[in-house]
Write a structure and sequence with these properties.
The complex is a heterodimer of chains A (269) and B (323). With 269 residues, chain A is of the alpha/beta class. Chain A has two domains: 1-83 and 174-269, P-loop containing nucleotide triphosphate hydrolases (Rossmann fold), CATH 3.40.50.300; 93-173, no CATH class. Chain A has eleven helices and ten strands. In chain A, the strands form two sheets. Chain A has a six-stranded mixed sheet with strand order 6-7-8-3-9-10, with helices on both faces. A four-stranded antiparallel sheet of chain A has the order 2-1-4-5, covered by helices on one side. In chain A, strand 1 (6-17) and strand 2 (20-31) form a beta hairpin. Chain B has 323 residues and is an all-alpha fold. Chain B has one domain. Helices cover 77% and strands 1% of the residues of chain B. Chain B has helices at residues 2-25, 29-54, 62-80, 84-108, 111-131, 133-136, 158-180, 183-193, 195-198, 205-231, 241-254, 259-275, 283-297, 303-322, and strands spanning 149-150, 153-154. Chain B has a two-stranded antiparallel sheet with strand order 1-2. In chain B, helix 1 packs parallel to helix 12 (259-275) and helix 4 runs antiparallel to helix 10 (205-231). The longest helix of chain B has 27 residues, at 205-231. Chain B starts with a helix and ends with a helix. The chains are: A alpha/beta (269), B mainly alpha (323). Chains A and B meet through helix 2, helix 3, helix 4 and helix 5 of A and helix 7, helix 8, helix 9 and helix 10 of B.
Chain lengths: 269, 323
């Protein structure tokens, strides 16, 4: 049997803040063609883990491998240009700029970085800008934001801002997107729209790694789940086995959740 | 968006045309001197706009940068008899190196700490210039810095020199427009808006900041060199922290981040002392109060008035249309 390709692997990842061990000896693999979720109570070390993967806050010990290659010592922008895109828990947009401009910046890491060459070559400059714009328009259509393209992002509703951030990430042609609480702060209709878009992006051959508190979102979207508690992995597996895992229930989901699930199952039957 | 940008270019062009016409009507050498200073200020502020206006890093090192440009060109041309054309190039090269060097602290420091570091830089330059008397002449300064010729025309009068720097300013302005309204300008503004997000998009924030500093320093040293050859005399007494702050005021009064704003700021702030001359001893305090008022009520500078007025007019006309 052919083994599925591993997109991202973390090995013995440790993060210490002075005395506090935020993440302790964490191992997991994100496989190609799977949406992988990381869940756990507040303070379990989920965002810390994402920040170690992106390089925003590098690990104390351990390794991060992207397609088998160690990226643990790379600066953030190099990891991003390898194809690791991310969104932030608290949106980090360029707030005084328009939606279009935000997207353009997302794509320009791949354009020429030589100012002199750019200034000397009008044609190159024009072509680059046109290509960026065309790509941005395509993505705006894809995420259903085209009509907002000239709006200043700080004037948009929260859901639209989240969508803009996702669009900006897509401009960099990521192979893997790390979503830090994609559904947080969204109303039910926005949430559904966002999940649909994520699903569509995933179908376009982009792998996903997400942190999420909303269990509906997690259960609907993900194929693999890793559960963290106090910086340690307590369970891993498909959604069904996670729901039945005693340790996960006592640490995170709670007894009530199981009862609710049983009730729903009963109603379905 | 595009229409606003086009209209802005019209205004920029109009200001240059008006500036070019002024010497035809004014024969007073003193006023021509002020015009020269105004355009030199404009060039320096076009540069400062990159780092403080767009990238949002408060730079109080402008006077130091300006001084290094002035001394480089003055010393090379006077002591070694090198053509000022070449020494001005040398000044720009000095600016390039300086920008790289000054850019580094900006990678480690933010906000007030960066301002203080750049302020210290200005002071270091001034203290060196004051005390290296053998080289810089100290507070006595350097005199007889040569003027130069453009082809067959010797720039011996202030009016001729004015037209020369006006052409330089137009070129520098075009370069600024090309950078500011392109992906480079976008990157600069992105650093100001949200520095944390930049790197996750595959852009190296260090490069962007150093690029902004380098551009600012190159414009600044060019301005300094132009000043040295214009004035024919420089002294370390001119390059004080006050001068650095003055450039920030120009930037602020005109409109941070806007090229048109830089020009309006340079015109207004250079003229203000002359316009307020009738106040005599009360000039300083009036000037400060005016700057404060502008900062309080026009945080986006004088250029924002235009937008506000057209905004009000549009509102008025659309309300009328509705009824």
């Amino acid at each position: 049997m052919e083994q599925t390709q591993v997109v991202l692997e973390v090995q013995n990842l440790v993060k210490r803040f002075d005395g506090l061990v935020a993440v302790d000896n964490l191992n997991f693999k994100v496989k190609k063609g799977r949406i992988h979720a990381l869940i756990g109570p507040n303070g379990a070390g989920k965002t810390t883990t994402v920040n170690m993967i992106t390089g925003d806050n590098p690990q104390t010990e351990g390794e991060v491998l992207f397609y088998g290659k160690s990226i643990s010592k790379m600066p953030i922008y190099e990891r991003a240009s390898l194809g690791i895109g991310r969104t932030f828990q608290n949106i980090k947009l360029f707030s005084t700029m328009t939606v279009m401009e935000n997207l353009l910046i997302g794509g320009q890491g791949k354009t020429t970085q030589n100012l002199l060459k750019y200034l000397a070559n009008f044609k190159l400059a024009q072509r680059e800008e046109r290509q960026l714009r065309e790509k941005a328009e395509e993505i705006l259509n894809f995420i259903g934001m085209y009509k907002y393209k000239d709006e200043q992002v700080s004037n948009l509703a929260y859901g639209r801002q989240k969508m803009t951030e996702l669009g900006r990430t897509l401009m960099g042609d990521p192979k893997l997107i790390l979503l830090d609480e994609p559904a947080a702060g969204l109303n039910p209709s926005e949430r559904k729209e966002f999940i649909d878009i994520i699903q569509k992006v995933f179908e376009n051959n982009v792998d996903m790694f997400l942190i999420e508190h909303n269990m509906d979102v997690v259960m609907n979207l993900s194929h693999d789940i890793t559960v963290l508690n106090f910086g340690c992995k307590i369970a891993e597996g498909d959604p069904k086995s996670i729901l039945e895992n005693e340790e996960v229930i006592s640490a995170y989901l709670g007894e009530g959740y199981r009862k609710q699930m049983k009730k729903e199952a009963g109603q379905d039957a | 968006m595009k229409r606003i940008a086009n209209r802005q270019y019209l205004w920029i062009g109009a200001i240059f045309v008006v500036l070019a016409l002024v010497p035809l009507f004014i024969d007073n050498n003193y006023y021509i001197t002020i015009l020269n200073q105004m355009v030199i200020n404009m060039i320096v502020v076009f540069g400062l706009n990159f780092i403080t206006g767009l990238t949002g890093q408060m730079n109080l090192g402008t006077a130091g940068i300006y001084a290094i440009g002035a001394y480089t060109s003055a010393l090379l041309s006077k002591n070694f008899g090198i053509s000022p054309w070449l020494t001005m190039m040398a000044a720009i090269c000095a600016g390039f190196l300086l920008g790289r060097g000054l850019g580094y602290p900006s990678l480690k420091m933010k906000g007030v700490y960066l301002s203080l570091t750049t302020l210290a830089f200005t002071e270091i330059v001034r203290i060196f210039a004051t005390n290296l008397i053998d080289i810089t002449g100290g507070t006595q300064g350097i005199n007889d810095i040569p003027r130069f010729a453009v082809g067959p025309v010797m720039l011996d009068t202030n009016t001729k020199y004015f037209y020369f720097i006006l052409v330089v300013a137009v070129l520098v302005c075009l370069l600024s427009i090309r950078i500011v309204y392109s992906k480079w300008g976008r990157e600069f503004r992105a650093v100001r808006d949200n520095a944390d997000a930049i790197e996750s998009l595959g852009l190296d924030i260090k490069k962007i900041k150093i690029r902004a500093f380098t551009l600012a320093a190159m414009y600044g040293t060019l301005g300094g060199a132009l000043y040295a050859h214009f004035n024919s005399y420089i002294t370390s007494l001119s390059f004080t922290t006050d001068l650095s702050i003055n450039y920030v005021i120009i930037l602020m009064v005109g409109g941070i981040g806007s090229i048109l704003g830089n020009m309006v700021g340079a015109v207004v702030v250079t003229l203000l002392p002359e316009l307020l001359r009738f106040l005599g001893d009360y000039y300083q305090i009036t000037y400060c109060i005016l700057v404060l008022i502008s900062a309080l009520f026009l945080p986006n500078g004088l250029v924002s008035i235009y937008g506000k007025i057209t905004g009000l007019l549009n509102k008025g006309s659309s309300a009328e249309g509705g009824e």
